[in-house]
Design brief:
860 residues, Chitobiase, domain 2, 29% helix, disordered N terminus, disordered C terminus, binds alpha-D-glucopyranuronic acid
């Protein structure tokens, strides 16, 4: 923990709204101003008349009931009897187009609705005042109901309502990387909502609530298990259990799908082969798929990760992805199911010494030649970038490389490389950058990625959006309450990729926190700036996230990218940095783009700065478009990013009492932590580049920390210095650890008497909860526990954490000590102390002892 409990859980603020259900997410249904929604002359309905009996329509009517109660304090009467309901003249009517036309033929509209689309209308007919939620089908009716509720939440007047909408694409799915044991690959919010210890959970309430959330933004499918699939989930007894998850999804129109392992026929079917072209293998898949549909009649289809990162695949038999995909596609076709075959196929044993080797090429190289060979119910699922969800990547050239194949874009909602929900990163602007990229397909005026994946550009029958969500059992589904804006945003973009980031952010903020202008302005600003801020203090100029590439992908670990087969190389040496992917002198990757886009990336002059190091290798002294050198840009952005991360804290603090307390403190805790960890990032990156390039920072900041005292330079009692690896993740490359009951590190304070903030940089390992106490002249002034569960058991960039004791009164000559008490495997490690003039923050620690002798106040 960064902030001590006493600071965090300060006395409750009068007026703060009472705790909300953290799982309600954007379906909080906060009270709204009814006058705005139903201005004078517009009747508020009393009754909801449901015309259809399907489970999905029942959910829709129930939802209207729930939303009206929460937002308008109106308890709607639920009716299914048209005659009875017609006694009331102020009605919401919900049904499919067919049902509505049968109910009142005069309401039939000529223009048919698109599948899963809806029309919302307010109609005054005689004495009747009707709000009509008309779906093209059952799902459309449900999406219409949720849209109407969103309009109410945003206090939009419902007079003369006439809104026709339809989803942009057929496939709007999330992938959940859950394992049968209940763990989640790259999940950062606790255990699986589906599985536990090898079985499907008994309690399906979270699964059902999740489906409701997904449906509320138009998501119609969910793949419940890890793409690194466990074949045992296809066993008959497991399918029976999985059918319970499908049943929980069904009332919300969310189709269940499964990730499958290509070797299943061998692993669980006892065949001697899984060669997709072996007749017995195809027969096995047919029988298996039939069996799945018996258990789950509305099964959506399968996701295949093959020949990638150790997964079995057709390559083993010299078969192509198309041959493998089609075997499954043919088994699924009679049932209406689809195959999502992942384009994420690459060799992770690349030769680092080969200047032409390039992982970014793999997707295009492996799939481009197969264009036209995939069956119509196969969709190639392509990650937005050619590498792997880095903080900045160009779009995958494969999007423009398949003209006769269905395509879906895979976006990552779980923040694997973008701060793992401990850092605030609203990803919608990043996704928009990909979706709005014009691929310059020859002969086309525009060929935006968003039009390619929805099937418009190449006139494909199918396409879509897949978001890797990885929600967990923890509160707020994704851990960080504000991270839910990403799940919301994914759904909204899948529905309509033309929506702007600002629109999506503001919708989410209003639905989650209400319509207060201050709250909207603060939250929207935080969200919309967050990606840029994160990029600034992590990986610059398209080089990649600069994290620990072969590990947990969280904190800084710059060199881990190099000298291995994984191919996320940055090719940094003493002179320069970046992957040369040009056609002229590099790996030729740029040549995979259509000529118009390739021309932009190929030359240094035209290549956008933010992708410079992705496309080119340049010296550190190379000047960007604004004439700043690459190295100075790296220094400046890292300082600017860390400063901006710190400023998020006071911005959020202005919302105390305006958002529910529980959410307020949860976000505050995370933003405080992020502010500390952004300094770890900043210092690691700038020091590493400083050492590598030998070029000084123009502004003299790098390597120069006048307020800092290294723990290893303090007077140590029982603490022992250790070297930290990678060196850049500890100040001075060293820390101190305690291998006995307690240790201390002390220093004399020689600066002017006054008020100071004392930051202690320490390492909070995954296991253990060491205790630290900050003492001044032997008197304890602050104490805290290192009880976070960061993703490493080592002293490194993942675990380096900052605790700041604010507004501490110090006399020149005082003795400052940190007492560390180890716990279990955690040796109370300390990196350094940083003492700065007090920032004037209100989060002051209790002052006592000698500090009280200081006369005057904080105006020093
Ligand atoms: C990344 C991620 C893996 C995941 C893989 C995939 O490499 O780190 O955990 O399995 O992507 O998307 O298949």
């Amino acid at each position: 923990m960064l902030v001590s409990a006493s600071v965090l859980f300060a006395s409750p603020v009068p007026g703060a709204r009472q705790p909300v259900d953290p799982q309600a997410a954007w379906l909080a249904y906060n009270a709204v101003d009814a006058q705005r929604v139903f201005p004078a002359g517009t009747a508020m309905p009393n009754t909801v008349l449901r015309l259809g009996d399907s489970a999905v329509e029942i959910s829709a009517a129930d939802e209207l009931h729930r939303g009206f109660e929460g937002m308008l304090h109106r308890i709607l009467r639920l009716d299914t009897d048209a005659v009875q309901a017609s006694k009331d003249h102020d009605l919401i009517v919900i049904g499919t187009a067919k049902e509505i036309a049968a109910w009142r033929p005069s309401l039939r509209e000529k223009k048919p609705l698109q599948p899963e689309g809806f029309r919302l209308r307010s109609v005054v007919a005689g004495k009747d005042s009707l709000l009509i939620v008309e779906g093209a089908d059952e799902r459309g009716a449900l999406y219409g109901a949720f849209t109407l509720l969103r309009m109410i939440a945003e206090e939009r007047p419902l007079t003369q309502l006439d809104d026709v909408e339809a989803p942009s694409a057929a496939v709007r799915w999330t992938n959940e990387w859950d394992n049968p044991d209940g763990s989640i690959e790259r999940g950062y919010a606790g255990r699986s909502i589906f599985f536990d210890k090898g079985d499907v959970r008994q309690d399906m309430s979270r699964a059902r609530e999740y489906a409701r959330l997904l449906a509320s933004v138009g998501i119609n499918g969910c793949t419940i298990n890890n793409v690194n699939a466990d074949p045992s989930l296809l066993r008959p007894e497991k399918l029976a259990e999985i059918a319970r998850i499908a049943a929980a999804f069904r009332p919300y129109g969310v189709k269940l799908s499964l990730s499958i392992a290509m070797n299943s026929p061998q692993a669980i079917g006892r065949l001697s082969t899984f060669d997709p072209l072996a007749p017995e293998v195809a027969a096995w898949w047919r029988a298996k798929v039939d069996e799945i549909y018996k258990a789950i009649p509305d099964f959506g289809g399968v996701i295949i990760k093959a020949d990638s990162e150790g997964q079995p695949g057709p390559l083993q038999y010299g078969r192509t992805p198309a041959e493998a995909a089609n075997v499954l596609a043919r088994a699924l076709k009679p049932h209406g199911g689809v195959v999502l075959y992942r384009g994420f196929v690459y060799n992770h044993h690349l030769d680092w010494h080969d200047p032409k080797a390039d992982r970014a090429r793999a997707g295009y190289d492996n799939f481009h030649t197969l264009d036209g060979q995939f069956d119509d119910n196969v969709i190639v699922q392509i990650k937005n970038g050619p590498i792997d969800f880095q903080v900045r990547e160009p779009v995958s050239p494969l999007f423009a490389g398949l003209h006769k194949t269905n395509e879906a874009i895979e976006l990552q909602i779980t923040q694997e490389y973008t701060g793992q929900q401990r850092h605030l990163v609203f990803l919608v602007p990043m996704w928009k950058t990909a979706l709005d990229t014009d691929m310059h397909v020859s002969g086309m005026r525009y060929s935006m990625v968003r039009d390619i994946v929805t099937g418009r550009t190449f006139r494909r029958p199918m396409g879509g959006f897949v978001g890797v969500a990885n929600v967990g059992l923890d509160d707020y589904w994704l851990g960080h309450p504000l991270a839910m804006a990403n799940l919301y945003g994914f759904g909204r973009l899948a529905w309509d990729p033309v929506l702007s980031s600002a629109t999506i952010s503001d919708e989410w903020t209003r639905l989650t926190f209400g319509n207060d202008a201050d709250v909207r302005s603060v939250v929207d600003t935080l969200l919309l700036n967050s990606w840029h801020i994160y990029e600034e203090y992590t990986g610059p100029l398209g080089v990649g996230t600069l994290t620990d590439i072969i590990g947990v992908h969280y904190g800084p670990g710059i060199e881990s990218a190099e000298r291995n087969g994984w191919g996320q190389w940055i090719r940094a040496d003493h002179n320069g940095i970046g992957m040369d992917r040009t056609v002229a002198t590099g790996t030729g990757y740029i040549g995979q783009y259509p000529a118009g886009l390739a021309a932009e990336y190929e030359t240094l002059k035209a290549c956008p700065d933010e992708l410079l190091l992705f496309m080119h290798h340049v010296p550190y002294t190379y000047r960007l478009h604004d004439h700043k050198t690459v190295i100075q840009y790296i220094y400046d952005t890292h300082y600017a990013g860390a400063t901006a991360a710190a400023v998020q804290v006071p911005a959020w603090e202005t919302l105390e009492g305006k958002v529910p307390d529980r959410t307020y403190f949860e976000v505050l805790r995370r933003l405080n932590y992020q502010a500390g960890h952004s300094l770890v990032w900043r210092d690691a990156v700038v020091n590493w580049f400083h050492r590598m390039s030998g070029i000084a920072d123009d502004k003299g900041r790098v390597g120069n920390y006048p307020d800092r005292t290294e723990a290893e330079a303090m007077q140590l009692e029982r603490y022992v210095p250790v070297a930290v690896t990678p060196w850049e993740t500890a100040s001075g490359g060293k820390a101190v650890v305690c291998h006995t009951a307690s240790c201390s590190a002390s220093m004399g304070f020689t600066r002017a008497t006054g008020w100071y903030d004392i930051a202690v940089q320490y390492f909070d390992l995954r296991e253990g909860a060491s205790r630290f106490t900050l003492e001044v002249n032997g008197t304890a002034i602050d104490t805290w526990k290192a009880d976070d569960t960061l993703p490493s058991q080592k002293l490194d960039g993942h675990t380096s954490t900052r605790h700041t004791s604010h507004d501490v009164a110090l006399h020149s000559g005082d003795r400052i000590s940190i007492i560390g008490v180890p716990d279990g495997k955690e040796p109370a490690p300390i990196d350094y102390l940083e003492i700065t003039p007090a920032s004037g923050s209100e989060r002051s620690v209790r002052r006592k002892g000698p500090q009280e002798e200081i006369h005057g106040n904080k105006d020093h």
